[in-house]
Amino acid sequence: MPRPIPVPDELSKPFWDACNERRLIVQTCTACNRMQYPPERACRDCGSADQLGWREVQGRGTVTGHIVIYDSRLRAWQEMQPYNVAIIALEENPDIKFFSNLPGTPPDEVPFEAKVQLIFEEVAPGRLLHEWQLVG
Predict the structure, then answer these.
(1) What would the 3-class secondary structure string for 39-63 be?
(2) Do the beta carbons of residue 125 and residue 104 sit within 8 Å?
(3) pLDDT at position 6, please?
(4) Each residue of 21-47: pLDDT tens digit?
(5) How many CA atoms lie within 13 A of 53 on its CB side?
(6) Is the peptide bond before 111 cis (omega within 30 degrees of 0)?
């Protein structure tokens, strides 16, 4: 069964467009220099709605936690069971977290505080999904 394909809305479209270009961007408030993900209509710190833009990040992070899914209720993921769901803290801003199944890492073998790097997985022609993999 194919992986779910993200359906961008007006707010998330710049993020998904960048992924399709093999780039990772996060929303940034130019009023207070705060980075945030997922994107929102206003800055979570200063409340500015008209000072939000996007900043490209390097795509490096650290595993801060994980679980293994053995019995997914999501039909599209059932044939991949068991699989990891890792929490990735972004290197440029550890308050920003991403989730990844860590392609290539066997279930139950996710090292805590491991370094990871961004990869992109094609889920449909010309449609990329951001994932993370262990470094080294």
Answers:
(1) CCCCCCCCCCCCCEEEEEECCEEEE
(2) no
(3) 87
(4) 999 999 999 999 999 999 999 999 999
(5) 7
(6) no
